[in-house]
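With this grant's support, the team has encoded backbone shapes as discrete tokens. A representative record is reproduced below.
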Amino acid sequence: MATVTKQQIGGMLARQGILIAFAIFMIAFTIANPKFLSVDNVFSVVRSSAILGIMALGVTFVVISGNLDLSVGSMMSFSTIVVLDLHDKIGPFLAIPAMVGLTLCLGAFIGFLVGYLRLNSLIVTLGMLSAIHGLTLTYSGGQNMDIADKEGTWFSVFGQGTALGIPVPILIFAALAALLGLSLAKTPFGRKIYAVGGNGTAATFSGVRRARTVFTCYLISSGCVAIAGLIQASRSLGSQNTVGQGLELEVLAAVILGGASLLGGSGTIFKTVIGVLILGFIQNGLLLVGLQFYVQFIVTWIIIILAVWLDIAAKRGKLWSPIA
């Protein structure tokens, strides 16, 4: 009887361990600082998590399809710098679609290499991380970008505006989550993504065009990055050319925290949103209890290791390997 109980506890921790740990963190942070769950702080956390969350929505598609995308941080830097530079040259009305188009081209290139040429997504996107960073530095001449007339532009509405008392970044994040969540859960294309990620060979023999599906997933990911870059540029109306550096790990951590498997074939947009919020609230709580911001990097690493461990444990139904 005791053995069955241990297995049940182990299985529950494997499936819900992250949520249990998050609940413990939330209680501890609230006790340490009562302002942690105040309305203002909650809005602040969600708003600051919107950029990371929007990027994570697109990466969720890629991960479910059985691939990775480590280029999103550098790609976000590129999109931010491009839209800021073009804002003063051709105006925001043309700068925004131009930036989106260029970012989609990067996503299409990655999708072609991974989807049609069947190259390893880890190697391709790791290489593109450096390549896009170099492209950004070349484009900007190594200089940061700022909008000349910050007071006379409507461009700030995407990052600083509000509607019905709700910050625009939160509204964009929520709308994208709803749209992409429905497309993933309720459309034939969504079912194809799960099929490709679960068993690519079987999906191909079932008539699913694997290459096209993977290619489209990378297009969706780059489109989300473009929107995130737009919000980032609009928030400060200026940016360093390394603004997205390191975000790829946080994005991947949020996606895995949400339950998407690194092996592909499982995950949902709703759970990714939960993963983003878990990461955002934990980082915010660490700051409120007085820890320095760089402690977040250590905690993020611990969270990634914990999430991957629980992901593997959920697959086998045990926290520990049966042959350990």
User: Anything to note?
Assistant: Residues 285 and 291 are 9 Å apart (CA to CA). The chain is about 75% helix and 0% strand. The beta strands are 145-146, 162-163, 166-167, 238-239. The mean pLDDT is 87.
